[in-house]
Write a structure and sequence with these properties.
heterodimer; A: 267 residues; alpha/beta; Rossmann fold; 11 helices; 8 strands; B: 855 residues; seven-stranded mixed β-sheet; 28 helices; 55% helix; 11% strand
Amino acid sequence: MKTIAIISSVGGAGRTTLTAALAGLLGARKHAVLALECDPRNVLALYGGLREPAGAGLASYLLNPGSAPAEAALQSDDGTLWLPWGGARPQGGLSAAEQAMIAATLHRQPGWLRDLLAQVDLPGNGIALVDTATWPSVHAEQAIAAADLVVVVVPPTPLACATLLRLRAELAGRGKQSLYVANGISPAMALHTDIIALLRQLLGAELSTYRIHADSGVPEALARNQNFSLAAPHSQAAHDMQGLATWLSSWVKQASRRAAPAAGGAP
Amino acid sequence: MSKGVLRNAWMRIKRVTAQQIGVGVDAGAHLWALRLAFRQPRPGQRDWAVHAYGAVAGHLRNELGVTEKAGVGTWLGRLFFRPRRRRAHLAADLRHARHQRGKQRRSILLGRIGRWLAPVYGVAGRTGQTLHAWLPSVPWERLSERVDRWSAKLDRVPFMKPVILLMALAAALAFWTTPLPLASQFQLFILVCLVMLVARRIPGRWPTMLMVSLSILMTGRYIWWRATQTLHFATSIEALFGYILFAAEIYTWIVLFFGYIQTAWPLNRHPKPLPDDPAEWPTVDIYIPTYNEPLSVVSPAVLAAKSMDWPRDKLRVYLLDDGSREEFNQFAAEVGVGYLTREEHRFAKAGNINHALGLTSGDYIAIFDCDHIPTRSFLQTTMGEFLADPSCALVQTPHHFFSPDPFERNYDTFLRIPNEGSLFYGLIQDGNDFWNATFFCGSCAVIKRAPLLEVGGIAVETVTEDAHTSLKMHRRGYRSAYLRIVQAAGLATESLSGHIGQRIRWARGMAQIFRIDNPWVGKGLSFFQRICYSNAMLHFFYGFPRLIFLLMPCAYLFFGLHVFSADAMAVMAYVLPYLFVSGLANSRIQGQYRHSFWAEVYESVLAWYTVLPTTVAFINPKKGKFNVTAKGGLIEKEYLDWSTSKPYVWLLGINLLAMVAGIVRIFTTQRDEPATVLMNMVWGLFNVAMLGAAVGVAKEARQVRVAHHVPLSVPAMLILPDGKTLACHTENYSTGGLGIVLPDALKFNAGEALGVSLSRGDQEYYFPAVVARCSGTRLGLKFEEWSYEKEAQLIQCTFGRADAWVRWEEELVPDKPLHSFVEVVEMGYQGVLRLFDACLDAVEAVALRRPRQQG
């Protein structure tokens, strides 16, 4: 099983959207997929078809280490497993004290998520996709520590470019393989074209050739409670996501093949 | 006063009578007549008389084509004369026919025959496949490699080559001159044919060599026989015609042998790599000479040249405007290219380039006609050759046309049958390259500045300055290279008259060079270079021989002259093997670049027009003037170009009359030699087919669009007004718009604004557009807010792509001589029908329309 963290250095980059879309597309490529949310916003499960914020999830497990996290996992009808952050209660969210406690735990144990994922046993070329809060944060740190591959979502904004170098240095320092994906690109915008040129210059081969184009159908699909790639299969954005999913799928297969001999031929 | 009384009385009588027989006073004459014979029916009963009358009158009106209000005069007229109907045309609409036969690249006739024979084909095909699977396969490629190695080894033995060549010559001389009885000659023919038929199925160059050698042997036998046995004439008139025919044949033999040498071993050169460091790359000036072409034709070439992949500081683009137009000056300033113009306009294009040579400083000069759009990779492909070989002075690439030329348009053979140019750029230039005799073709080429200055710039003595310039450079010992990789494409000449004008210029120029700078005299050329150049020039002298062949059967059919003193059997035994074997050998060599029998069609069209210019230029090279080829026009209405086709109409008429004369002859005076009459008639029929095709080409088909749509399938993205995107593919493109294939049938309204994005590599370009038309999954877009920047971007995504034309050779269809023959005959037949239609149209216009217009 390989873990892919989906992070970004600015808010609203489209991490959760991309995580949910990739979960479905990788599932369609015969991978067992677990989409996991390490983000206190607790919205991932909404993409999976849940009508209201999830109550059980990682947060409840953190608060009550005795419970089994698997109990909080949900399964959508395409077979994808969803593990939301959780913590939603009828009268509101987590209290400030609980949030502080969770943050403290995560801060104290940087490898907490990695250890948790090590207990998960997905069959074959299984993939765990980890959606996180905006980097830098304890949540993003957890996801990066757990990840085999870090997918950095870059929206075409000046701020994203400004914070990118620091993030890149951080990832390089930790020896993480990373892939940068530009998201929400419109060729009609001169700024977007320029930023893409800048990113290509800056990142070279680390910038994915698959850039996700801006498409108003993406938020619309969420509002209609639809899977975007299935609802608008001919849209360019869906094509781009398909391309990215295929790339990730083959990366996972290659990485597993490389790891297999190293692990002494273990199945 | 009395008039009023009379009218009153008449009215009263009429009213009373009307009351009596039961008719309205105002009723028409027919009702009165009816009522006089038939009584008015009682109320509630049907009026049978009126019903019957209505039915009969309706039928008659329908039959005679008379309207209800027509007068008696029209009725009477129509009883004797039929109304004028629209006459149906006999000639098939080939464009329509293509849609009928779908994507199948076959002629209509062949399609029909093919359907009849489908079961036979099926059985034969299956048997062939079974046999093929059962027989062991031969590794031809490995065999060919082994032969290559042996021959290389043999080549190293001293004096081996001359000895082998001398022995071959001795054997050939013996073969040519050995007399054989007719029966043995037939047997030899059959044997050679069998070898040819087997050899043409084997891939590789050595079987080609075998076929060429056999063709040389059989042709030599024919020449020997022709020269020794057939030149006995009874009268001096017959001798005159006989020797004229013999001279024409000598010309074809020379061209045949030279052609074999020229195309013996096409070099198939590959591009040489450039140094890794772009700092070592040389500086290049790009010249785009223009004279009177509109800016819309010139701007794509300039923008594409400007965006070629080459270091910015080493690439300078110059627009050489001989028309001194302010619009061009502004355009050049706006897009940032140099603009050069001159006061006087001597020596046309050559003078224009020579003038620019003095004003620029690049080490190399790339020249493009103003309508040839280069790809981005042009310089990177061609320049390596110069760096690898310092004595190389010229690199030429093919001229490729993305629009159909008049032949292709008027006969709908575009992308189905190779055009006139493909033989030259596909094979002849590549063959020339082996002998280091590639010549400059005026465009899509790079020339090194120093050698060009050494020969005094572009040659100005002749109207084909390009070939002459390279001849001069070859004389100085410089080398040339030909890369058969299409790196630029342009528009073909639009009309037949323009096409012919261009060929006349080439023919005249080549004749001029042959006269004033003959490749056989003067220093500096190798023997084979002399052959290649002289064949290129001789080629344009085909006018006379072709006309002789077109008219010669008439000499016998009209006047009974025996211009070929041999009986029919002997002719069959010698002429047929020669024609058949050289036809097969040429089909093998030229293969996909020129289908069998099409050379005859192309030459027949041009023959008449090249005779005079070549003769004049040969006698006095200074005569004649330069004509510019018109491009970018539009034929709005289809018509038969009478002035262009006049000579062929005459020739066709003469040949058709000769057919009639032949039929008369066979039943009256020449009953003793029917075989001779028949043979001349077959020859005449072949001429009729060629001339029919030549006339048919003059029927200019209507062109639908101004901008040519070039097929191209690349991914594209649509951005809809509501912000959604759509992944789709382009189908074709032009400078004004884009054809899109949608993934799903969607409804767009004409005029709706859309965005479309194309990519070149990683770079995406956005073009605002409006919907021009939409049906099903096909969407036509028209670009909006057009600017030179956008145009440059579109060119980079389309015409300028390095791979834009890489597949041109794949699109060529291999030659099948029999198919080709049927196709040419069909074209001839359609041509005759077109002429017939056009004649009737003309007669109709003269007899019927003009008087009415006057009245």
